[in-house]
Structure formats: structure tokens, C-alpha cells
Design brief:
Blueprint (H helix, E strand, L loop, with lengths): L1 H48 L41
Length: about 90
Amino acid sequence: MIFLLHSLAQLLAPALVPICCVMAWGLTIMMLSSLWSLGKDVVKQVKRLHTIPCANCVFLTGDYHLKCTVNPCGALTEAAIDCPDYRPVS
């Protein structure tokens, strides 16, 4: 039994290095692809959050207890992106 395993290991030894190299590069490419995808998603989300108009609205109080006098629950959130009560500061 030991002789059989030893001879099998001798037969597979030349192929182990290329197999391991291909697997290592495959894992590296998958990891980089995943990081690229994550980066694109983060940039997209940040661009969306920068469209929240509350910072330039006359109803924003600047107080964390009552952020907005008209829509206090939706102020400074994604729900405020299309706020019908938005009035820009003159």
C-alpha cells in the first residue's frame, strides 16, 4: 500500500507545480475581479448619496434633534433625493 502511494506521488510530482501555479493565478484573478466589482459598486453608491439635496435646503436646521422642519424622518437620507419640499437656499 505504501509502495503504491509512493509510486503515485512520483507520477504526479511533475504535474503538481503547473497545477498549483494555475490554481494560484486563478484565485488571484478571482480576488482582483471581486475587488474591482466592489469598487464599482462603492463609487456608484457614493455618487447616489452625493445627490441628496438637504445640505442646501432652507428647511435644514443643523440640529441633530430636528434635522428638517418639514420632513424630519427623511432628512439627510436617500429618501430625500426626490423631496417635493426642497427649497434651495437663496
